[in-house]
């Protein structure tokens, strides 16, 4: 298993922006913070349900220790993002604000033990134009497929592990930036943004890095190849309905046929437009009502 903290590659070139591990995204590839999403840091979410949300991360913030149930020793050095679903999917958008400390690593871990993961990482507009984003370390684990969107400022190694039937797919835009290094038995190592040149000495990479493992496919894109959310929609009635359906899927006391049925319904509701979904639900409810009425009429004869 690859170690995301000790990715071994040729040392960076003498370009200051890459040698210190910091990145400087183009202004056109930075996005405003979504409305209604307050900046936070060191978030930790662990649940048996699916997780869906939009988060703005400010690496310069340090939450007080009393906000954590059991603050670990040296909690100031904890990860910026730790999101874990034991029985559902993970669908998150992460907006990272630059900070005054461009050398500090921004680390995030996202896990879906029984489902798929869709993780989109964006560069957010800085509060100070002189600030630049520090290096980011992304770790994604999914029991099914993983869709990962990285900012165009990303420059560093990708270490990807798939199952026997899984594969790694790049979007056309991202594939043009990929330099393959190693691929064997489900392990795929490559570099985004051009392999560093300069010294021939092998050193530990301190810039951007991505590690992903999935039993299904791993699909990689640039973050601007998908819809960029302008507000947090994870708390609306539609999202609540999807979470309730998914909760039935992951409930250990639910009968297996009900879990399978709930999975299919949740996928249908997620993949089709809302008006059509409500229309389909209305038709199903009407048919169900008719069936119950016919059964009652039959047994009362």
Automatic annotation (TrEMBL):
InterPro entries attached to this UniProt entry: DUF7330 (IPR055754)
Biased composition (Polar residues): 8-26
Highest taxon, organism lineage: Eukaryota
Spans traversing the lipid bilayer: 277-300
Keyword annotations: Membrane, Transmembrane, Transmembrane helix
Region described as Disordered: 1-35
Signal peptide location: none
Pfam families, per database record: DUF7330
Domain called DUF7330: residue spans: 41-225
Name used for this protein in its record: DUF7330 domain-containing protein
């Amino acid at each position: 298993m690859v170690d995301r903290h000790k990715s071994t590659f040729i040392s960076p070139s003498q370009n200051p922006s890459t040698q210190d591990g910091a990145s400087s995204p183009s202004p056109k590839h930075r996005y405003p913070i979504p409305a209604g999403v307050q900046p936070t840091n060191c978030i930790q979410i662990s649940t048996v349900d699916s997780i869906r949300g939009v988060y703005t991360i400010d690496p310069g913030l340090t939450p007080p220790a009393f906000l954590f149930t059991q603050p670990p020793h040296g909690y100031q050095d904890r990860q910026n993002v730790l999101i874990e679903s034991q029985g559902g999917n993970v669908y998150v958008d992460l907006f990272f604000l630059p900070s005054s400390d461009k050398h500090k690593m921004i680390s995030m871990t996202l896990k879906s033990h029984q489902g798929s993961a869709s993780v989109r990482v964006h560069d957010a507009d800085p509060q100070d134009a002189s600030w630049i984003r520090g290096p980011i370390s992304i770790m994604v684990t999914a029991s099914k497929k993983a869709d990962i969107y990285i900012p165009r400022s990303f420059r560093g190694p990708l270490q990807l592990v798939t199952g026997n039937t899984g594969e790694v797919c790049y979007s056309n835009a991202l594939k043009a930036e990929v330099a393959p290094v190693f691929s064997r038995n489900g392990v795929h190592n490559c570099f985004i943004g051009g392999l560093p040149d300069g010294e021939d000495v092998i050193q530990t990479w301190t810039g951007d890095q991505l590690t992903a493992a999935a039993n299904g496919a791993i699909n990689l894109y640039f973050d601007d190849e998908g819809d960029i959310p302008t507000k947090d929609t994870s708390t609306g009635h539609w999202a609540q309905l999807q979470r309730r359906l998914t909760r039935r899927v992951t409930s250990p006391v639910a009968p297996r046929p009900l879990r399978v049925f709930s999975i299919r319904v949740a996928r249908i509701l997620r993949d089709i437009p809302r008006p059509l979904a409500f229309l389909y639900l209305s038709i199903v409810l009407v048919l169900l009502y008719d069936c119950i009425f016919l059964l009652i009429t039959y047994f009362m004869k």
